[in-house]
Specification:
By secondary structure, the chain is mostly helical. The chain folds into three domains: 82 residues, Helix-hairpin-Helix base-excision DNA repair enzymes (C-terminal) (Endonuclease Iii, domain 2), CATH 1.10.1670.10; 98 residues, Endonuclease III, domain 1, CATH 1.10.340; 58 residues, Orthogonal Bundle (Arc Repressor Mutant, subunit A), CATH 1.10.10. The chain contains 14 helices and three strands. The chain has a three-stranded antiparallel beta sheet with strand order 1-3-2. Helix 9 packs across helix 11. It starts with 5 loop residues before the first helix and ends in a 12-residue tail after the last strand. It binds iron/sulfur cluster. The site of iron/sulfur cluster has 14 residues, from helix 9.
C-alpha cells in the first residue's frame, strides 16, 4: 500500500488544474450512461482516439441503447464496426449486451464478468458512469503515475495501488481523464514534453526517457490481422462472397485459413459456398 505526502498532493492539484484548461472534450465524456461509456472504452482498447470519435457517433446513431444493440444481428454490429479492426471486440460487446438483459451493471465485479470486459474496462465504466473512486490503470495512467512517483513507468499492479491512494473522492472521473490526457498529449511514450508539463516540479522522471523498450509486434501476426481486416471489410461492403471472390480481391495465400479462423470465432458464417457476416439476411454471394 502506497502512502504519499505533499509531493503527491501537489501533483494531484497541478494535474487537475491543467485538465481544467487543457482537457480533451471527447464525446463520451459528456455522458454518464454506462452503455455509451462501455462502447467508447471497448473501441478505445485497440484503436486511436481520432479514429474512434467518428466511429463512436455512427455506432450510437445505429445502436442508441443497450437493448438496440442486443436486438441487432451480429452482422449489423460488425458492419458498423468495420474500419476499427479487432472485430472480436464487437462480437464480445454484442454478447455482453445480450447477457446484460437491458441493464448494464455499474459495479466492477459484475461488469468484469461480462465478455470482453477486463478489470481496466470494468473500473473505467464504473468510475465514469457513477463517479465512484475506483482505481484502474491503462497504459497512459501507468506511464504518468509511474514516472511522476516512481521515476519509471509503473506495472499495472503498482499503478492501481498508487491510483487507489491518490484518486480524489468526489472527483474520480476528472482525475482519470486528466491522467489519460496528460499521458496522451504531454507525457507520451517517447520524447515526453517535460518542458511543457504541468507536473514537472514533483515528477521523479523529468528530463529522462523513462520509457521501457517497446517490443515490435511479430510481422506474421500483423499481416494476419491485415488479411482478416480485408476479409471483414469486403463482407461488410458486399454482405456475402465466395472464397474465390475473396482470394481474387485480397490476393493472399492466407485467405482460406483466415476465413476458417474467423468462422471458428463466430465472426462470419460459411454455408456451402456462401461466406457472410453472421445473422445478415441472405444475399447472393458476390462472385465479381
Ligand atoms: S515531467 Fe516529463 S516525465 Fe514527468 S510527467 Fe511530465 S512529461 Fe512525463
Amino acid at each position: 500500500m502506497y502512502t504519499f505526502g505533499i509531493r503527491a498532493r501537489g501533483f494531484r492539484a497541478r494535474l487537475l488544474r491543467w485538465y481544467g484548461r487543457h482537457g480533451r472534450a471527447l464525446p463520451w465524456r459528456r455522458t454518464r450512461d454506462p452503455y455509451r461509456i462501455l462502447v467508447s472504452e471497448v473501441m478505445l482498447q485497440q484503436t486511436q482516439v481520432a479514429r474512434v470519435v467518428p466511429a463512436y457517433g455512427r455506432f450510437l446513431r445505429r445502436f442508441p441503447t443497450l437493448r438496440a444493440l442486443a436486438r441487432a444481428p451480429l452482422g449489423h454490429v460488425l458492419v458498423q464496426w468495420s474500419g476499427l479492426g479487432y472485430p472480436r471486440r464487437a462480437r464480445d460487446l454484442h454478447r455482453a449486451a445480450r447477457l446484460a438483459r437491458g441493464r448494464l451493471p455499474t459495479d466492477v465485479a459484475a461488469l468484469d464478468e461480462l465478455p470482453g470486459i477486463g478489470t481496466y474496462t470494468a473500473g473505467a465504466v464504473a468510475c465514469f458512469s457513477t463517479g465512484a473512486p475506483v482505481a484502474f490503470a491503462d497504459t497512459n495512467i501507468r506511464r504518468v503515475l509511474g514516472r511522476v512517483l516512481l521515476g519509471r513507468t509503473a506495472t499495472e499492479r503498482e499503478a492501481v495501488e498508487i491510483d487507489a491512494a491518490l484518486v480524489p473522492r468526489g472527483d474520480a472521473a476528472r482525475w482519470h481523464h486528466a491522467l489519460m490526457d496528460l499521458g496522451a498529449t504531454v507525457c507520451v511514450t517517447r520524447a515526453p514534453r517535460c518542458d511543457a508539463c504541468p507536473v514537472f516540479e514533483p515528477c521523479l522522471a523529468k528530463g529522462t526517457d523513462a520509457s521501457p523498450a517497446t517490443r515490435r509486434q511479430a510481422a506474421f501476426a500483423t499481416s494476419d490481422r491485415r488479411v482478416r481486416g480485408a476479409i471483414m471489410r469486403i463482407l461488410a461492403e458486399r454482405r456475402a462472397a465466395t472464397l474465390p471472390t475473396l482470394r481474387n480481391a485480397i490476393a493472399d495465400h492466407r485467405v482460406a485459413r483466415l476465413v476458417a479462423q474467423l468462422s471458428e470465432e463466430g465472426l462470419l458464417s460459411v454455408r456451402g459456398e456462401r461466406i457472410a457476416l453472421p445473422g445478415l439476411r441472405r444475399a447472393r454471394a458476390s462472385r465479381s
